[in-house]
Write a structure and sequence with these properties.
mainly alpha, 15 helices, globular
Length: about 325
């Protein structure tokens, strides 16, 4: 039985994107929520909960972006020109977030400035990522295998909705992470934030899902026409069950369970988006096979990924294991 390398690469990139969204999502979420934390110990404990892992989390962004460039060069060449302002904003946000993270400790005289930069950088990066996803889902104008739209095609009510949904989702991941990693008054505060973020995320996920079926006739047929509807119906049903379970876990003094359920909610959301656009990598005109690199290139790169991805997963798991448990009241694990 032959293996479709293009499909394999599509799933590799999807896995890398999901890993990035989950792992960098919770520390971006902490940045988004940072102004709600009390100046002093609460902010310090929140920062120290992500200090050992935040920079390693961005490895998955490099793998996802690099994999898209290598395995689907035509898609890369179309998506970037269509979303240049958003990509630039995201990268600048990540830079400001990273610089602020380091300098708030080394320049305590200007800590308020660095705290603001940490929040703004996190918010801009999250919003840009969500709007980039929305720009892709709403469709990109391609003519003769090149982007044929304008500089502002990405800016629509739909992309604003997906951007806000991503911000709320990252805030949910960040707050549930803090529920797990903190205790005492700080944990109680994180629970209150998690409830609000969960409600906002669920509402915005529902809004995006309903909006999707109006964007494209193919999207609507995937979710509303027989026999496809019988295959995809479990996704929204299980999503609703997970959402209710997550809210119950947040309010019933669970520690790690809300975070894992938030990850499950993200997984189901991304699975739903995958069902919506498959097999297109640039809707509505380019499938994964249209945009794929030559087979020999895919084989060569697959060897590299087979060697490096297990190492990345191993050292990431080791880092999280070493720094497991609660953050101490002095700000250290």
């Amino acid at each position: 039985m032959s293996v479709d390398l293009t499909t394999v690469w599509a799933f590799i990139i999807a896995f890398a994107v999901f890993a990035y969204v989950v792992m960098d999502g919770f520390d971006l979420g902490i940045g988004i929520l940072f102004p709600t934390f009390h100046v002093g110990r609460e902010r310090d404990r929140a920062m120290n909960s992500i200090a050992p892992v935040w920079d390693g989390n961005e490895t998955w962004l490099v793998l996802g972006g690099g994999g898209l460039f290598a395995a689907f060069p035509l898609a890369y060449a179309v998506i970037l020109p269509a979303t240049y302002p958003l990509i630039i904003a995201m990268l600048l946000g990540l830079v400001f977030r990273g610089v602020a993270f380091e300098y708030r400790w080394r320049d305590p005289a200007h800590r308020a400035f660095w705290d603001a930069a940490f929040t703004i950088g996190s918010l801009v990066a999250a919003l840009a990522q969500g709007m980039t996803l929305g720009a892709l889902l709403q469709g990109i104008d391609v003519v003769d295998r090149a982007y044929a739209g304008s500089w502002w095609d990405w800016l629509t009510p739909y992309t604003l909705l997906t951007g806000l949904g991503t911000v709320a989702g990252y805030a949910l991941l960040g707050s549930t992470w803090l529920v797990w990693k903190l205790d005492g008054e700080e944990q109680a505060h994180a629970r209150k934030l998690a409830v609000r973020a969960a409600i906002a995320t669920i509402v915005l996920m529902g809004g995006v899902s309903l909006y999707n079926v109006t964007l494209n006739a193919d999207y609507a047929s995937r979710w509303l026409s027989a026999p496809e509807v019988y295959w995809v119906a479990p996704v929204p049903i299980v999503t609703a069950v997970i959402a209710v379970s997550m809210l119950r876990a947040i309010t019933r003094d669970r520690n790690s369970k809300p975070f894992w359920l938030a990850i499950a909610l993200f997984f189901l959301g991304m699975s739903g988006l995958g069902v919506t656009i498959w097999p297109y990598v640039v809707p509505p005109g380019l499938t994964i096979w249209d945009a794929a690199a030559p087979e020999r290139s895919q084989v060569f790169m697959l060897v590299g990924v087979a060697l490096t991805m297990p190492l990345i997963i191993a050292y990431t798991a080791w880092a999280y294991w070493v720094f497991r448990g609660k953050v101490g009241h002095e700000g250290y694990h």
